[in-house]
Amino acid sequence: MIKRGYPSMAATIYGVRSFFLLAAIVILFYGRYGGATAATRGYIKYKDPKAAVEERVEDLLTRMTLPEKLGQMCQVDRFNFSFFPPATRHEIFTKYLIGSVLSNPYDTGASPSKRVVEVNTMQKLSLSTRLGIPLLYAIDAVHGHNTFINATIFPHNVGLGATRDPDLVKKIGAITALEVRATGIAQAFAPCVAVCRDPRWGRCYESYSEDPKVVNMMTESIMEGLQGNAPYVADFKTKLAGCAKHFVGDGGTVGGINENNTVADNATLFGIHMPPFEIAVKKGIASIMASYSSLNGVKMHANRAMITDYLKNTLKFQGFVISDWLGIDKITTPPRANYTYSIEASINAGIDMVMVPFQYIEFLEGLTKLVNGGYIPMSRIDDAVRRVLRVKFSIGLFENPLAEETLVSEFGSEAHREIAREAVRKSMVLLKNGKTNVDKVIPLQRNVKKIVVAGAHANNMGWQCGGFTLTWQGFNGTGENIGRNKAMQLPTGKTRGTTILEAIMKTVDHTTEVVYAEEPNQDTSKLHIDAAYTIVVVGEAPYAETQGDSTTLSIAAPGPDTIRHTCGSGMKCVVVLVTGRPLVIEPYLDTIDALVVAWLPGTEGQGITDVLFGDHPFTGTLPRTWMKSVTQLPMNVGDKNYDPLFPFGYGIKT
Question: How are beta strands 429-433 and 298-299 bridged, if at all?
Answer without folding.
Answer: unpaired
